[in-house]
Amino acid sequence: MKIVRWTVCLALSAAACALTSGTAAAETIKVGVIATFSGPNAIWGKQFREAIDVYVAQHGSEVAGHKVEFIYKDVGGPNADASKAAAQELLIRDGVKYLAGFDFTPNAVAVAPLIKQAKVPAVIFNAGTSSINKQSEYFIRTSFTLWQVSAPAGEWAAKNGAKKVVTAVTDYNPGVDAEAAFSSTFQKNGGEIVEKIRMPLNTTDFSPFMQRIKNSGADAVFAFLPAGPATFAFTKAYNENGLRAAGINFYGTGETDETTIDALGDQAIGLVTAYHYSGAHDSPLNKSFVAKLKELHPSSRANLASVGAYDGVELIYRMIKAAGGDGPKAVEAAKGMEWESPRGPIKIDPVSRHVVQNVYIRRVERGSDGYLINKEFATIPNVADLGYSQ
Amino acid sequence: MSIILSILVDGIAYGMILFMISVGLSITMGLMRIINLAHGGFALFGGAMAHVLTIRMGMPFLGAFLLSVLGVVVIAAPLERLLYRHIYGFDELGQVLATVGIVFLMIATVNLFLGSTILAIRSPEVFTTAVNLGFKTLPFHRVVVIASGMVLLAGLWLLVEKTRFGIYLRAAVDNRNAAASLGIDTPRVYLAAFSLGAGLAATGGILGAELLPIEAYYPLRYMVLFLIVVAVGGLGSVAGSFFAALGLGILDTFGRYLLPDIGPIFFFLAIIMLLALRPNGLLGRAG
Amino acid sequence: MTDLVTPRVSTRRAIPLFGSLWPIAIVILAAFAAFFLFPYDLAFLTRIVIMMVFVLSFDLILGYAGIATLGHAAMYGCGAYAAGLFALHISPDPLVGLLIGATAGALIGWASGLVLLRTHGMTLLIISIAVTMVLQEAASKARWLTGGADGLPGISVSPILGFFEFDFVGQVAFIYSVCVLVAVLVLCHVLVSSPFGLALRGIKNSASRMRAIGTPVYRRKVTVYTIAGAIAGIAGALAAQVTGLVGLEVFNFSLSADVMVMLILGGAGRLYGALIGTLIFMTVHHVAASIDPFNWLFVIGFMLLVVVFALPDGLVSLPARLVRFLRRA
């Protein structure tokens, strides 16, 4: 037991050393980024990392005398075990003062007990389940939740001519959230949900669902699917089974993601979605962000993951400016922060620690540079995370 | 009635895509008796080449398709000479390890050069139009797939059952030494059969890309699907793979349409039941 | 196709009981050394140890009984969910939790084994995959119970034996996992050197011969599958307790495939082969992924090919090969 106690002392003193040294001036502050860099979902980590590159290229790697260093850890997809182990390694060995990244909900939730104990803020760049932020005071999120974008989508659809809508969502938690949020506001505004279709997670052929959507007699479909092959195949099936020709409108959220939209080609043109960020958002800040991204990574396109990471780093820089490496102070400082992001004006809600932002209604068009873009044409301002109180 | 008809049509179209993609695997795994987990890798290579040719170089679809299939055969042949030739001699566990290693390298290569996003293949405009069957519409692309599936089935059946190559192949598979002593050039027969399997994988990968989009992790994402089709069809049976693919396509479509809540559970339970009752698959040879 | 594992006549003599206890001693020593040498990597080391328990259970069925499956995650996942739910709703005691995990793994192993052990080869592989898929779909549907894709969060266990509480650095978790590993290793060792273990090896080499001498082959297979299920369940339960969250990925096909790759890499049919394969695979993966998070798959792919071509019997055959090579030289 004696030996064990000795190492406990050693490890704890190292950790304590790492924890206290942050207050000293001109210290290097390390930020651990936990995300998926390999496997079928590697796009998340790639987008995160490139956006961080852009931010650092624009703003330098020094804040208030501190040098900021990013350490990347791959967890290969939704993997709670790997995420927690990576966080432990980052906190204990590397002595990071901030954690960031987190593309999938289980990966974020798994670190909740750790960040509570270590008093280290964790900035979530994506994972969008509302309840995550309830697991620890130290979670702050710069992405979006499905309630946040789907509820405005329902309201907008009802006010803009949709009478009868069929929802078609993937049968997993985010899909169920999207369905609930859209239905509640759509019905509140006088619309009718004629059918709720839930599609199994590993569906590859969507024709059967297209037939059901057609048979439901709806004049529009609201869809939510995980990014990647599923959205690709769904939107393709929507066109090829003649739904568009039959006049059934498409409403979605992230289905027209910038990284997959060009694979859809002309079929995507005209799809309407409600979302918090478009790579084509018309503002000088976004233009410089997108231009810098193009310069550093010519084949990349800015999407929700990019802006989540970009704003996440902005937030971390602001917290470092306000509190250095002092976690609790940094979280306090973050509450209520407001700034202009490439997506538009944003604010950190002091209660939910989630970003309050505009939700835009967009339509897919062919941009001047030949790429497909999400052109924003209506704005629902200052939407908070409506799912936090659900 | 029209619902059942519509499920049937959707199911057949889906099943035909499954057939196209997995028939090559049925050949390498069933006839050549090698656990080739890298099969999907050849489909990925075919799809990736078709992507580069149609999107980045602006080639028309048909030319790109033929060139890609040819390209995959050109890659597969030396791979067979260098690697697979030795892998045939490994025990099954060694084959698993070796082909998993190969598929990892294939994925990493595509990921390095083309990234991990969906690699679209531009197909002719006419593919995306809807064909009206009266009781439902069917994407024209599916009509093309169904037709090419039938052609492939007929061609393969003729090749394996009626040609000299087919006789050599079956002889070489049943008893390699005896075949060799009868003067059959078994290494060349194996080379040809392997290249054929790879070419079929590429064909299926490209034509099926509308449904199973090509991306770097394609071989792992759909490995289970391919294995199921081959196992249900029965190893070594082209016709078995065909009926299995069609049956599974219809079963899956049926489950998703009528029982969306438990569709996948129903699908996998049905497979368990079927295999428990017919362990050699629909048309597999015993043992 | 015949069995996935070709019958190979064993040339090794029966292992004397104490002569091969040295792997267990080495495991304990290595764990001690790792504890002091890598005090900052205990979380990762704990993952390796848990995976070792899991791969050991797979060695029992693949390496010893010759049953090749691609659905071993079924038992791991059931163990994880069972232990997680037990800790959340009934009792936070970790050791009882392990027992619950083992029971869940054994139950699912027994039930699925009854069906799938009647088949072999490719059919067995596919049924084992299908069983895992059914469980994953069911866990995904039962959101009220499992939390669905968000995972089952907030699992916390009481101090082990009432004394040792899971700490921030992960020391207790590591020691706890090593203790479980050693216990499982001893159990497996006793099992494989017992008459039952010899019968398994006989079945692997020639099932028909064993049937001819009166061994109930099917029943022996179901028994070992159930035992392996229990151990896999323990591994899952351990992971659930250490991580504090169970996600749907415990049923992933890739987990089952990884386990098979790790075992073959190390050398199937030898307990320490399972340990070495897991250690090498996970360490190489970890190091390669931290050097280049995007392209580490190249390294793993090359490693597998090199091993399978240079050492067809897995990494454990390396020393013997070296000795032979040196003697010739």
Task: Give structural notes.
- Chain A is of the alpha/beta class.
- Helices cover 42% and strands 23% of the residues of chain A.
- Chain A has 2 domains: 2-144 and 283-353, Response regulator (Rossmann fold); 147-275 and 359-383, Rossmann fold (3-Layer(aba) Sandwich), CATH 3.40.50.2300.
- Chain A is built from 14 helices and 15 strands.
- In chain A, strands 7, 8, 9, 10, 11, 12, 13, 14 and 15 form a 9-stranded mixed sheet that branches. In chain A, strands 2-3-1-4-5-6 form a 6-stranded mixed sheet, with helices on both faces.
- In chain A, helix 2 packs across helix 12, helix 7 packs parallel to helix 8 and helix 13 (304-323) crosses helix 14 (327-334).
- Chain B contains 12 helices and 2 strands, in the order ααααββαααααααα.
- Chain C has one domain.
- Helices cover 71% and strands 0% of the residues of chain C.
- Mean pLDDT of chain C is 89; it is low at 1-16.
- At the A-C interface, helix 1, strand 3, helix 3, helix 4 and helix 5 of A face helix 2, helix 5 and helix 10 of C.
As a percent range, the share of strand residues of chain A is: 15-25%
Terminal Cα span of chain A: 48 Å
Helix tally of chain A? 14
Unreliable residue runs of chain B: none
Relative helix content of chain A: 40-55%
The CATH architecture of chain B is: Orthogonal Bundle
Quaternary organisation? heterotrimer
Structural class of chain A: alpha/beta
- Largest interchain contact: A-C, 51 and 44 residues
Along the chain, the helix and strand elements of chain A come as HEHEEHEHHEHEHEHEHEHEHEHHHEEEE
> Terminal Cα separation of chain B, in Å?
41 Å
Computed structural class of chain B: mainly alpha
Can you name the CATH architecture of the largest domain in chain A? 3-Layer(aba) Sandwich
The largest sheet of chain A is: 9 strands, mixed
CATH fold descriptor of the largest domain in chain A: Rossmann fold
Strand order of the largest sheet of chain B: 1-2
